[in-house]
């Protein structure tokens, strides 16, 4: 089995990302702050909004059969906090979102202790704009080891304004993976909308021999449909 090696601190690309992340964190500390969930002044996330991020792992099954677990619905406080992290660079919000990704990832692994958590790759444009990889930052805060074996084969259009079929066409064939024969993986991403990107990631991983156990995201948009399963996880269990 070819087990991929995660980036090391001596890797120039890893170092560049670490520097960008540190700068983004420093800027977020220097700027005036208000609650990302309700705009209450002088606090990054107020107790009420923090409580609204208490996760419950819920699953959806996509058309391809891929099971996707998510810790939060992408609405209300959760949606505002995720947008503040992604679009405003408020990296301190990665920690309060970490439990949602962690319980979803554990549910996706379904007891496989050696499962690799493989992030959907961030586009170069998004990395330049933000200075960090969203799901990898949250995964680190969650204590999830990340195995970066997916890469982009070609560029894609911004998915936000596209419908379900257009999203699928947009990402079709856009990802590739390094050899991962018999490696058990859980794909991780920040938000699932139609599931097109996750299905493309699963296709690319299966093509190189990986065993895709499922996928996990911080949140799922309501348009994805009614959850097909639910798993409540105690707070103590999220810090194993």
From TrEMBL:
<feature type="domain" description="Phosphoribosyltransferase">
    <location>
        <begin position="127"/>
        <end position="227"/>
    </location>
</feature>
<dbReference type="InterPro" id="IPR051910">
    <property type="entry name" value="ComF/GntX_DNA_util-trans"/>
</dbReference>
<dbReference type="InterPro" id="IPR000836">
    <property type="entry name" value="PRTase_dom"/>
</dbReference>
<dbReference type="InterPro" id="IPR029057">
    <property type="entry name" value="PRTase-like"/>
</dbReference>
<dbReference type="Pfam" id="PF00156">
    <property type="entry name" value="Pribosyltran"/>
</dbReference>
<comment type="similarity">
    <text>Belongs to the ComF/GntX family.</text>
</comment>
<protein>
    <submittedName>
        <fullName>ComF family protein</fullName>
    </submittedName>
</protein>
């Amino acid at each position: 089995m070819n087990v991929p090696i995660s980036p090391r601190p001596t890797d120039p690309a890893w170092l560049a990302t670490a520097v960008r992340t540190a700068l983004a964190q420093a800027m977020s500390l220097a700027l005036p702050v208000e609650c990302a969930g309700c705009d209450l002044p002088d606090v990054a996330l107020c107790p009420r909004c923090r409580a609204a991020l208490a996760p419950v792992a819920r699953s959806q099954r996509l058309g391809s059969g891929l099971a996707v677990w998510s810790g939060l619905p992408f609405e209300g406080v959760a949606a505002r906090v995720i947008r503040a992290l992604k679009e405003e660079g408020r990296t301190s919000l990665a920690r309060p979102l970490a439990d949602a990704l962690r319980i979803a990832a554990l549910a996706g692994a379904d007891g496989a202790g050696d499962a690799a958590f493989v992030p959907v790759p961030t586009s170069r444009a998004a990395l330049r704009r933000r200075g960090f990889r969203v799901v990898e930052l949250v995964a680190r805060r969650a204590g999830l080891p990340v195995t970066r074996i997916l890469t982009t084969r070609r560029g894609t259009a911004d998915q936000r304004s596209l419908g379900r079929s257009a999203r699928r066409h947009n990402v079709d064939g856009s990802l590739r993976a390094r050899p991962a024969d018999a490696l058990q993986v859980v794909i991780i991403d920040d938000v699932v909308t139609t599931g097109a990107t996750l299905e493309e990631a699963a296709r690319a991983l299966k093509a190189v021999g990986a065993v895709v156990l499922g996928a996990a995201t911080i949140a799922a948009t309501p348009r994805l449909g009614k959850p097909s399963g639910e798993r409540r996880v105690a707070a103590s269990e999220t810090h194993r």
